[in-house]
Amino acid sequence: MILVRTAIGTAAVLLLTGLWAGWASAADECHLTRAAEFTFAPSSTARVGIPVGIDGHEEMFLVDTGGFVSMIAAATAQKLDLHQKAVNPNVVALMADGTRLDHYVSVGTLAIGPAQLHHRNLLVWPGSKEDSSTGGTLAPDVLGVFDLDFDFAAHHLNFFLQKHCPGRVVYWASHYGTVPFTSSKVEGWIRVKVQLDGKDVGAILDTGASDTVLGAGQAESLFGIVADSLEKTMADGSAITPPDLGVHRFNTLSFGDVTVGNPSIVITRDAAQEAYERHNRGNKLLSDPLNGPAAVGMPLIIGMNVLSKLHLYIAYGEKMLYVTAAGAGQASPPPAAASD
What we know:
The protein is mainly beta. The protein has helices at 20-27, 74-79, 140-143, 216-223, 271-280, 304-307; strands at residues 2-4, 13-15, 34-39, 49-54, 57-63, 71-73, 85-86, 93-95, 100-101, 103-112, 115-125, 136-138, 147-151, 156-160, 177-180, 191-196, 199-205, 212-215, 244-249, 252-255, 258-261, 264-268, 300-302, 310-315, 320-325.
């Protein structure tokens, strides 16, 4: 997840080549229309990687609903000989750990299955220490063009067109939960209200995060959790490292009628917030008519240790989540529409 204080200022044009006419016709019949499908490999972090075309070269990209703009790893940009350009210095783009991103590249075509986005800018980030094979990330600036259907039990991801009747998307089960969300045109994050140990908490769904994370301020103010009470090792036995303070196991995390039991949540300092404040110390106020409001403290970030327990359909067009437990139901997704 990254925090960006000013938009990059470039737009991409979505072209579905010759397939759009066939897809639109099928979607008009009020059926789900699949634009692309991927089977992803299980991983220790449970995060989802899919092949993406960058100017005709296939690279593995992480599906990151908690990103702000899509990114490319510095090593991938170098391998593809993409010219790196400096980001406007008035733009403050920060990773969740406070790392500033100050370069971007322009690509001619970014392809997800048959869908193509042309003249797309991607922020350059240092790359993943956990997985050096990750060539980039797809954030809501790309993902939000579609609906996303994560079948984590089957390790399957569908991209559906958004032209369908509202509420008619759950093909795999007869009983399911619905959770409305908000999503601004600037950031694209999926903001929901969930219940954590019975208390309403604002949250962001982040498929790019392996862990679920709560800021130390909220942990103490809402639940009375302090650093000294936290477990100092992660679920995999690894040691806690800054900015994380420790791990707390809650009782329940509920998405409407669907509940995940005993979620382990990392309690952390908000490094991105702190980095933003350091950047703005001096003669600029954190909130002024030019810069806009100051960065706010982090909400609950729901990562893959929780999301992978679900079957999750993100209807970006409706701004609605459709949720069941992972593995619920048996039905297969509808076939892709035939192209003309």
